[in-house]
Amino acid sequence: MTRNSDTPTDEDNERMDLESAIVDDTDAIVDERIETDGGVGTPFEVVSEYEETRRDRYRKLYDAYIYAPISIIWRDWRARIGFTIVAVYLLMGTVGTLFVEPTHVTEGPALAAPFETTEYILGTDAQGRDLFSQTVHSTSTILKMVLAGAVCTVGIGTIVGAIAGYKGGMTDTVLSSITDVFINIPGFPLVMVLGLMFDDIILGNPFAVGVLLSIASWGGLARAIRSQMLTLRKESFVEASQAMGIGTPTIVFKEIVPHLMPFVVINLTNSGRKVIFEAVALYYLGILPFENLNWGNILNLAYGANAHARPDALHWFLVPMFSIVFISVGLTLLGQSLDRVFNPRVRARHEKTTANTETEGDNEPKTNEMMGGV
């Protein structure tokens, strides 16, 4: 009897079963490998099982922007002293002016010594004006000058230096040439001339005085920022941003400039100190016009009355002098502490310490339960 060749034999059936089993095993192995990576199917279909809640996001923001800076400041004695001094001056220049009335001539006895009476804690000048009231209201004027001058100096220097260093080419050449001009111009004589030319604008406007003092101060910062940008623009994260098609302003001011914040913050406080010294010097020399008393013209009046050589009037000269010294010390210590606050490594270490502390706190009950169970 002849066998039909199309009819499968037992051997063919066994071979087909074996091939089917091999295919099933291979699929199982592939599925098992993918499941080991965390999902079923292709690896791109893997989705994290952890979903961040709004509370977790707020907790991270609190840890990064509130707890870590406060922790850094609290652990540094320089930061505590600097923030305390600056906070006292801020309160004195804002809230203090609401509670301390402006002084006037013949308000009290002439040249009353400090700490003799509670009414005139710091004494009076030769015209009987309260030196404590003068100090409080002078602080408000000086703070306005510092705010305007420091912000303008750092803002112009950072923008010009960052753009020049990142763009290069003709843009760098033009901006660097302008920067060199302002660096080589004698700053203090320039401010003196401009102060005499625009005395009607400056009179009674401390913000205008601060802007005037920043005209010749931003060049050095712009040059330093430019040199830093020449290095940072070659970093991998900048090249990645460029490859993604991100615009130049975003790359410069959101990707690169944050890496320069410690340097910028230190220059901010240094610019504030420089504004104070230059403003006081200009008022002391009688170059800038004024309506109300400030530390500079108080020193001018005291020097004109020879208070620095008279024991009974020496406090008239020392009160504004110590006011200048203390705020400059506070700004110096504040700049050093903010350098640590804006340092990414220090912040990351404090954030990590916070996370570890919270983790240890969560694990403590379990440890106690284990010990209690023993």
Which key terms come to mind for this protein?
mainly alpha; 374 residues; 16 helices; elongated; disordered C terminus; 0% strand
Q: What are the segments in which pLDDT stays under 50 over at least 5 consecutive residues?
A: 28-40, 357-374
Number of strands: 0
Terminal Cα separation, in Å? 84 Å
What's the total helix number?
Answer: 16
Instruction: Provide the residue-averaged pLDDT.
Output: 80
The computed structural class is mainly alpha
Largest sheet: none
Q: What is the H-and-E element order?
A: HHHHHHHHHHHHHHHH
Evaluate the radius of gyration: 35 Å
Shape by Cα distribution: elongated
Q: Strand percentage, roughly?
A: under 5%
How much helicity do the residues have?
A: over 70%
Short description:
The protein has 374 residues and is mainly α. The protein is 72% helix and 0% strand. The radius of gyration is 35 Å and the shape is elongated.
What do these coordinates show?
The protein is mainly alpha-helical and 374 residues long. It has 16 helices and no strands. The chain has helices spanning 10-37, 54-74, 77-94, 96-99, 131-167, 169-184, 187-197, 199-202, 206-213, 218-232, 236-243, 248-256, 261-284, 295-304, 314-341, 344-373. The longest helix has 37 residues, at 131-167. The protein starts with 9 loop residues before the first helix and ends with a helix.
